[in-house]
Amino acid sequence: MHNKVVYHAMKAFSSFALPVLRFNFRGTGLSEGEHDSGHGEQHDVRAALSWLEHNFKRPILFAGFSFGSQVGMRACCGDARVKGMIGLGLPVRAAGRDYEYSFLAKCTAPKLFISGDHDEFGPRETLAGIWEGAPEPKRLVWIGGADHFFQGTVESPSPKLAEMQMEMRLWLQDTFALKGATQLP
Question: How many domains does the chain divide into?
């Protein structure tokens, strides 16, 4: 919830004056419960969607990072309240866990996938195959010289969070015709 990727994603949504809810999954930080390998965490996402719907009564756009992107997209896929989804740093294999994305084949909401081209948890070829299996509308963006956390590589050492954020803003603007309070470069 407090890492740089999630913070920059929140800023991208906020630049369009969209309400943002960041939360920890069960067992993370000071949250109650225990990690449930993505099963119970889907309930956490659905509870967050219900809270947003109840309190804001607006269409919902989802963004998640790493484990949160996979769990969140799985929970949001097919939910009529969710009008679009962003997966940042989609993992394929991390912390001894394999992640699958077959659920995306039935997901017709607009989707944006953003990953670093040096993401150690999401090999480019595998992620390209996942993206290919998802129906339109969809967009896949590779951030050059970025690792899983959109930090730089040895060859390109500067952080790439601004590029990630810019791609989110462009997609939000293009896909939903949003007009932001912050001008795009």
Answer: 1
